[in-house]
Amino acid sequence: MDEASPGRRERKKAATRRAIAESARRLFLSHGFHDVGIRDIASDSDVAVTTVFAHFACKEALVFENDHEFEFRLNHAVSHRSADVSLVAALKSELEKMLEHCTSSQAAPLWSMIDATEDLRVFEERMRSRHAITLADAIARSEGLPYPTIACRTVARFALDSFDLARRSPEPLKAVADVFTMIDAAWQARP
């Protein structure tokens, strides 16, 4: 097999990206987000600074390495759901899976750092806003609509905000269930 084949190249790029993100997380958790620079991360990852920026647009993006996967999973849950699964049920199920991972004891230190760092909180809010736009588009397409209606955009935004509300709740899964009860009622009542 040709070592320069696209499959191998893509696997190497993904491995480099993971290694950079893992180094960054470890350094951030050990020394604090603001006390670690891109050069520190590059050195720890044994890559050039330009390589870090080839994979991550900014320092904050290193903390949210799974940003695109999160967005993809929500859009996929909507657009590839079975005919017998409602839009709201599909979103709720996917968010519950994501929430289980993000509320694990392993993820707690990372979320504590995010909650304590204004730059990361702002980045996360912008990320959720961007995801709400693409999710509203996916909802509209799944409903055969030519564009995202107010109902599509509202459901998308509330679904994404439910993640943050539930993550901070003492009973995350109950919080998601409560929010999605309201989302479902609103979706059913749409004009």
Automatic annotation (TrEMBL):
Highest taxon listed in the record's lineage: Bacteria
Which stretches hold the DNA-binding feature? 37-56
- Which GO molecular function, any one, fits this protein according to its record? transcription cis-regulatory region binding
Question: Ranges for the HTH tetR-type domain?
Answer: 14-74
Q: Which keywords belong to this entry? A: DNA-binding, Transcription, Transcription regulation
Its name, as the record gives it, is Putative TetR family transcriptional regulator
